[in-house]
Write a structure and sequence with these properties.
alpha+beta; nine-stranded antiparallel β-sheet; globular
């Protein structure tokens, strides 16, 4: 791609990444354990991402210690980076519609596996770009607010 896409097109690309994928790279960190990166499945409900992991995992422990996380969706040449605040949601407390949608998207139902828990991610910043021409202006969401007019 020669030039950068306008902000509205980049926002549309961010939403397309969220809607059309079901896997992401999930980065967490804590003072005690340092950075940690895993691939996970997710479901996007239009405002937040839902994923799941084992309660005894390093990811779970990191999120509990430090709820600020980062995820990446797409390839290095066409990527969406999301900085989010993570909330741990017990299997018994998850909205059944969200649990059903996550199970469909991931092929895994944490409600049927002992020791699993959900993690819901509320985006605070989103950045999207395709190559060096789009490094400038890559932020499409800041403090949880889209930087352009809403898309219907």
């Amino acid at each position: 791609m020669d030039g950068a896409r306008p902000l509205l097109d980049r926002r549309a690309a961010a939403l397309e990444h969220l809607r059309s994928n079901s896997n992401l790279w999930f980065a967490t960190a804590s003072d005690e354990r340092g950075p940690h990166l895993i691939p996970v499945s997710y479901w996007w409900d239009g405002t937040r991402l839902t994923t799941a992991t084992f309660e005894n995992s390093r990811t779970f422990k990191n999120v509990r210690a430090q709820p600020k996380v980062r995820v990446a969706i797409g390839s290095t040449g066409d990527v969406l980076i999301v900085d989010a605040t993570a909330t741990i949601v017990a299997v018994t407390d998850i909205d059944p519609a969200a649990a059903d949608a996550y199970a469909r998207a991931s092929g895994n139902d944490p409600r049927s596996v002992s020791g699993f828990t959900y993690i819901q991610l509320a985006p605070e910043r989103m950045q999207v770009w395709r190559g060096p021409a789009e490094f400038a202006g890559r932020t499409v969401m800041h403090r949880g607010v889209w930087l352009d007019q809403p898309i219907d």
